[in-house]
Amino acid sequence: MAFVVTEGVVAKTFYNGLGARIEERFKTRSGEEAKKSYTLFTEQPHGLQEGDAVKASGLLSVKVREYEVDGDVRHTADVVINGKAEVTSQADDSSPF
């Protein structure tokens, strides 16, 4: 089994505070902006909020999922981290909007 460490921003929290989707943004070789998404599951409620910058680590698992769009069969890989997350910068909730 593989151990992974990633840094990104919390895009969504779910599963009663035990799950979060973390997005890692980067530039490709051609200079384009791109992102990778990871699903994080923790044993205890993580307390993360959308917009928090986090460093997540844990055991890595990948599951290939098949779905259909307009008659075309497509595949995607769900990348999951089972472990913990450390908040490196909290989301700014001071905006009135």
Can you tell me about this structure?
The chain has 97 residues and is mostly beta strands. The protein has no helices and 5 strands. The chain is 0% helix and 68% strand. The chain has strands at 2-14, 19-27, 33-41, 53-69, 72-89. β2 (19-27) and β3 (33-41) form a beta hairpin. The termini are far apart. It has a single domain (2-89), classed as Nucleic acid-binding proteins (OB fold (Dihydrolipoamide Acetyltransferase, E2P)), CATH 2.40.50. The protein is globular, with a radius of gyration of 15 Å. A 5-stranded mixed beta barrel has the order 1-2-3-5-4.
Unreliable spans: none
CATH 4th-level superfamily: Nucleic acid-binding proteins
Number of helices: 0
CATH class: Mainly Beta
Largest sheet: 5 strands, mixed, barrel
Could you please say which CATH topology applies here?
A: OB fold (Dihydrolipoamide Acetyltransferase, E2P)
Oligomeric state of the chains present here: single chain
In short:
The chain has 97 residues and is mostly beta strands. The protein has strands at 2-14, 19-27, 33-41, 53-69, 72-89. The model has no long low-confidence stretch (mean pLDDT 89).
Task: Write the SSE topology.
Blueprint: E1 2-14, E2 19-27, E3 33-41, E4 53-69, E5 72-89
Parallel strand pairs: 3-5
Antiparallel strand pairs: 1-2, 1-4, 2-3, 4-5
What are the key terms here?
single chain; 97 residues; mainly beta; OB fold (Dihydrolipoamide Acetyltransferase, E2P); 5-stranded mixed barrel; 5 strands
